[in-house]
Amino acid sequence: MSLSVRFLGTSASRPTVERGLSSIAVTREGETMLFDCGEGTQRQMMRWQVGFTFGDLFFTHFHTDHFLGALGLLKTLALQARTEPLRVWGPKGAIALFKRAEGLGNEKLTFPLQVAEVEPGTPIARKDYEIRPFSVEHRNGAAVGYALVEHERRGRFDPDLARALGIPEGPLWGRIHKGETITLDDGRRIAPSTLVGPTRPGRTLVITGDTRPCAATIQHAQDADLLVHEATFGDEEQARAAETMHSTAREAATVARMANVRTLALTHFSARYSRDPSDLQREAREAFAGTLVMAKDGLELEVPYRDAVPAGDAGGAGGAGDTAAG
C-alpha cells in the first residue's frame, strides 16, 4: 500500500524563484490530502500532477503564507463544477475564516464546504489509519501539527506451510489470515497462529507546520518513519528563530534525533537559503545521523514499511539517503 509525500512549496514567508509557499500533498493508496495551501499552490498541483479531486485540506495555522492559496483553489474547484464535499480541517478560527473566504468574489461554490476545527489529542478516524492533531509552538498560539498513524497490519501468511498441511488454497486461507480458527474435513483444527506471523506496525508520518522545537513534536514523532519539520533559519539566525517562533535546521534535527525518527525532511527555508541550503544541511547533519532530506519543490518521497526495507538499508523514505535541494 503506497504512502507518498509531494512537496508543492518549500519556502518560508514569501515565494522565491526556486520555491513556492508552503503546501504538501500526501497520497495514501490513491487518496490525496493537502496540508497547507500557500499562494500558488494550485499551479504547483498542476505542475506536479497532483489531482484536484482530493477530499481533505488540512491547515497547520492561518498565517497568509500557509493559507492564501486556498481562496483561488476554492474558486477553481467551483469552475470545474465540483460537486463532492471538500473537508477542511484547521485549528481554532477555521470556521469563521472560511465563512468569510467562501463569500469572497460573490461567487457561489458548487460543492459543500465542510469546515471543522481540530482539537489536539482528538484523532480524526479513517479506515486503517488516523490523523492526530497536536499543539505546536508558533506565534498567536493557534497552530497544530499532524501525525498520520496507520493501524497495525496482520502478520504474514505462510502459503508454503498451508499447502504442506493440506489446506486448499482459497477461502480457508483468507479466513485463517483474518484470525479465524478453521476445521478441515479430516477434523483437524488449524489456529491462525500456526500460519500467521505476529502483527506488523503501520507507518507514521508527521508534519509540523511552523513551530519552535517542542515536546509535543517529539512525542508524536516517536519512532516515526518520516518527520517533515520546518527549518527556517541556520545557526547564525538562532535568536531570530526564537523571536519569530520558528526552528533552525539544527534544532529540527535535534527533535528528530530525540524522537528516533527514521527519516527527517527539512522544509520552509528562509529566502536566503532558497538557492543553496547546504549550510542548513550541514548543521542538521551534525545533530542527526538518520536519513536527511532537504526538500525542494516537486520532490516526492515514498514512505515504505519498515519490514519492506532490506536489513542494513539506510535509505529511509524513498531510499534517498542525504538529499540536497537543487
Q: What is this entry, summarized?
A:
This protein is α/β, with parallel strands linked by helices.
Number of helices: 11
CATH class of the largest domain: Alpha Beta
Mean pLDDT: 92
Distance between the termini: 29 Å
Helix content: 10-25%
> Which segments are poorly predicted (pLDDT under 50) over 5 or more consecutive residues?
310-315
What is the count of structural domains? 2
Biggest sheet: strand arrangement: 6-5-4-3-2-1-16
The SSE order reads: EEEHEHHEHEEEEHHEEHEHEHHEHEE
Q: What is the CATH architecture descriptor of the largest domain?
A: 4-Layer Sandwich
Computed CA radius of gyration, to the nearest angstrom = 22 Å
What fold name goes in the CATH topology slot of the largest domain? Answer: Metallo-beta-lactamase, Chain A
- The geometry reads as globular
CATH superfamily descriptor of the largest domain: Ribonuclease Z/Hydroxyacylglutathione hydrolase-like
Q: So what's the oligomer here?
A: single chain
Number of beta-strand segments: 16
Strand content: 15-25%
Q: Which structural class is indicated by helix and strand composition?
A: alpha/beta
